[in-house]
Structure formats: structure tokens, C-alpha cells
Amino acid sequence: MGAIQTAEVAVMAAIPIVLTYRVPQGLRVPVGSRVVVPVRKTVKVGIAVSVETGQDDVPGLRPIERVLDAEPLIPRDLLDLLLWVSRYYHTPAGATLALAFPPYLRQARPASPVHELRIVRTGTGRGVMGPKQHEILQGIPKEGISRADLQKRFPGCSSSVKALIRRGFLEQRPIAASGSPLDMPESSIIHTPEQAEAIQRITDAMDKGEFRSFLLHGVTGSGKTEVYLACATKALSLGRSVLYLVPEIALTPQTISMIRARIPIEVAVFHSGLSPAVRTREFIKTSRSSVGFVLGTRSAIFSPLANLGLIVVDEEHDHSYKQEDGVPYNARDLSLLRAKNSRAVVVLGSATPSMETFIRSSGKDSRVITMTARTGNAGLPLIEIIDMRGVRGAVSEQLGQAVQETLDKGEQALLFINRRGYSPAMVCPGCGLTLKCTQCDRSLTYHRMKGSSICHYCGYSLKLPEICPKCGCIDMKPLGIGTEHVVHKIGALFPHARILRMDSDEITTTNKLTSALEAIRSRQTDIIVGTQMIAKGHDFPHLTLVGVMHAEQLMFMPDFRAGERTFQQVVQVAGRAGRRRADTRVLIQSLIPDHPLIRSIAGYDYEGMIRAEKEVRRISGFPPFTYMARCVFSSTSLELVTRTITETAGRLKPRDVNLLGPAPAPISLLRGSHRWHMILTSRSRDRLHAALDRLERIQVPSGVRVKIDVDPYTML
Fold it and tell me: Most CB atoms within 10 A, among 273, 391, 613, 619?
């Protein structure tokens, strides 16, 4: 037999291994292309991850049926990144590669080329325009607009646009592709000395064409976004592409607006809220190098951008960059690896950086860029601590008075409580019974407007009983407060105030969020009551008072990052106030006002918080001083899952790896499944992964599910 070609194919299905196929003679299979292959009695779409030429045929080796892409849809550096993700996070290669492709392209469908054109005004043209045509012409910005965006702005405008093109008022021009330097306009913005220094350090690294990472540690309102945009302009002028990550979908509209106001280039958007058709269009545009700028949430780290020059990770500390379900990757960490593979520069920005990033960026070759001053004349708002010991009610006298003064001045107030619903629990005062979910080991949250108690994990709902089901007491009491409770109390105190509630119960769609943010910015609301939804990156120009309620509630979660997260969350929400003025206040209500962490928050003492947290983690052997993995075993049978994880832990016997547990998970029952976990830590990354490799080879009963989470971010 003569030499044959074989291809390793990662099938985009629930198949744990890469499969080998024979390449039929004369068939070209580019590495990274989609292929159709037989799997058992059906056919599936997979990605060719390698192609090799051997000497002998292998009996029984099935052939690739067809190749869907003449050229790969993803660049080689992205393919390498995805394969690394599969190995590092111990997930099937096919499931991991599927992260990069929209659902349409995970099927055996062609990826039709997309030729994007920009519609621009000519300044000439002849003939009379109708009102609709005149409106369209005036609505096109100087730099032009893509056909897709023009359709969004003026639905059903195709015939009018064609008429304007025919008569010379408009013309179509190709959108500049990444890879060719763009003639970027000079910016008229005057940078602060700190901004200028940050831009200089980052762009100097970009000029060298080498991988570098920087931590941009700037207080809220210091102008980090302007640094990002100036550096993006530089990257594009060098013919390199830009990837800009934000933690939440809600931040994409305002970020898009800022980008388009500065940079005349097509921007592709990647996030989970897009329709399959739009996701496919954005993917193909990017893959075909029609755009050189991608904005998105964590999944955008897998966008098919070629020739990367700059990656921005805004609010890099945010937990939203870590995916918990499916493939449990962290987009912040992957940004460093992707930039390294592309010889690009990474800028990680935050007012409250994660400890991992801060420690990694500090040291002899410091890559920390500090910005301590807000732009303009505004300083950081004064933080006052209110002692709530012995205080009845959700709103202290001091906070109530501050809200009244704010309303009297015609300004806005924000009240932050990171719990939705009316109350986190309903309790019987007679026997102490707490209403709990039947499928989860969690108390039911009382929602007053719905008249029900609801599980926020599985959705189980229970109408509030008239009497206690255990002792017959007729007076079940709410315990604790949530956003509904605060709105109720504030509404009674300030009956004429316009109150806006912002939590995931009230804001259920992107459109509702956009409307809510617009209502705040246009001063159609006086008091905002919300959860962490409002703590991330938003700019509210008329907000001069922030009240934080139950600031300590995160501190005692069963998580070694609890202190760090509390600091980040409260300081971030405090930063929403007074970005353009000095007369602003932040009031923090706390039952433990003298706790060192609360005092660190009041003084914006980030480094003090870091010193305290470092010492605790060093002694405890937790990251960033060790590498960590969490292994969760779950089953509908408590006896089966307990026995399985105990036996597995006994067989594992890892070298130079500390094993904590097995023990019930903090949420020991979730959606009807009993959960146990064990935690592995090691000072050697290789030793940790060797232990996980052994764990994967241990067979467990079919009724038990095992989830491995490398570098876990939540411990529940």
C-alpha cells in the first residue's frame, strides 16, 4: 500500500476524544477547516486539527466525506489557543472548538463570503430628494456607515439608498480591512499627564511588535477608556487588529458609541445576546478580514481576528469573564495567552484589580501603570460609614436625610443592595421554619409583587402560605432585605420621587436595560435601586449620592476571595458617583463598621486590602500562591455520589498536591442533584494537571457526573 494522509478531527459534539480519519486521495484538507465525517451511523461536523502523511493505510479507517471550507475560518493562533484550552481545562476538544463558531456554522452549511461596503456621502449629487431620502442622507455620519447599520437605523431604506447612489448623493466604498495600515485622524483630545504617560508606555511596546501585558490601575473616572481608544488607534495605524473585551452585554452600546466617535472603522460585536444570524454575519465578516476591531464579552476572546495587535480587557477583575457552565474558561487569562501567540499587547484595566493580576504585574519588571486622579476637577467621593448596630429598618436616618438633600438639589441617588426580591427568606417566628426549595439546598426568596417565594437557582416557586406548614403560626415573617424591600421603603419615605429598580427580575432584556440607562442619563428618574448590574462601568453624570446597604453581606461567603470581592464591589459602586463634580457622597451602612476591610473600603485603600488578603492566602495555601482545581461530583443519589467521590479521592493519591475534602459542596443540593466536591492545590502547575489527568482516567458510575473546574472563581 502507498502512503496515505490522515487527519485528526475534533467533532463538535459530545465526544470526549479526537478521532482519526483517512483523507481521500485528491482531497485537500486545510488545518482548521470544517469537515463532514461519519460518526457511528450518522455524520457530524468537525474541525481538522492536524493532517499527517503516513506510509501505510490503516484497516477500518473511515474517510472524510467532504471539506466545507477551502480556507480555514479561524486563524492558526486561535486554533492553537482552543486546543490549549481543551488541554488546560480538561474539556473535550470538539466542545471547546465549538466555542469559536456560531451555531449556524457548527452544521454542514457553507460560510458564504461577506463583502461589506460602507455607504458615504459624496458632497455632490443632483436632483430633488424626498423627505425620507433627505432624512437618510442627514443620518449618515461623515465617516460613513455600513449597509447593515444603516438598515438598523432606517428599516426598509434599500430603495431610497439605491436612488441616492444612482443620483450621486451617496457612494459605496470598501471597508478598510485589518492588515493594512489605516490613515487615522488626529485626535483633538488633550490628555492628562497620567493618560499621556500610560499611552506612551503602551504604544512604545506596540511599536516593538512584541508581547507585553500591562495592568492599567486607574481609579474610577480617571479616563482609562480614553487610554484604550488612543492605543487602539495606534494599533490600527500599524495595520494590526484590536480586540476590546467588556464584562457585560449592557456595556456594549455605550462602548460602541465611544469607539465610533473616535475611530472611523467597522466594529464587529460578539456576545451571547445576538441572534444566530447576526452572530454568523459578524463571525464571517471578521474571518474574512472585513473588520479589524472586535468588541464583545468573554466569548469574543474566540473571535477569528487575524493579525492581533492589541487586546483590551476592561474591568479585568470582573467575575463575568469566567464561564462557569460548559467549558469553564477565563477570558482574562486567555487574553494573555492569545496575545503572546500573536505578539500583541494586552491592557488589563480596573480600579480594583484582581489579586492575581496585581501580583503578576508587580515586581522587578513592573508593568503596572497607575492613574490616581479623576479627569476634570472631580475627586473621589467621600465615603462615610454608618453604624447600623441597633438601627431598625433598612434605611438609616443619615441615609434618608442625604437622599432628601439630593432630591432637593434636583440630583440623583443610587441605593445599592446586592440581593433581589423583597426578602432572602421567609421565617416562622413561632417554630423557626424557613421556607426552602425542594430541589436545592437554598432558602426561597420572597417576591412581594408576585406573592410567591422563588428559588433563584432552579426557578421553583411557592405561593406564600397563610399559616406555617409546621406549627400553624399565622404570621410568617420576611428575614433580610432585597431590592423590592428597599423600593417599598424608599417609596414610602419619598412618595413623589421617581424610583427605578434595576435587577435581573425587573431588567429582563437588553432593550429594557438600554431604556433604563437612558432614563437615568436623561434625568427621568430620581432614585435608582439596584444590584451589581449597576456597579460596572456605567457613567451617570447627574448621580451625586450612593448608598450601600449591607456592605458586609459578601464577606462571609464560603469563598477565599470573599474579602477581595467585597472591596471590589463596594468601591466600584462608589465610583458611579460624582465623575464630573466634587460635591458627592457615598454612605456605607454596615453592622461591622470597625472591620478592617470596611475601613479599607472607606479609605480606598486597595494596597492595604491586598496586603491583608495576601497574608491570609499565603498561610492557607490558596491562589495566587498555589494552582487550584475544584472537582464537583453530582448525582440524584446521595449514597452513590458520597461513595464515588470518597473512593475516587482514595485512589487518586496525588504527588505534591494537597487534597481538601471530599466534603458536601456549599450548595449541597442543586436542581435535584446532590453535590460533593474536593479541592486540589499545588505549587506546581504540572503536578496539579498530572493529578487531574489521573482523575479523568478513573471510571465512575454512569449515575455520577464529574465536573473539573481549573482556576475556579466561585466555590458554591
Answer: 613
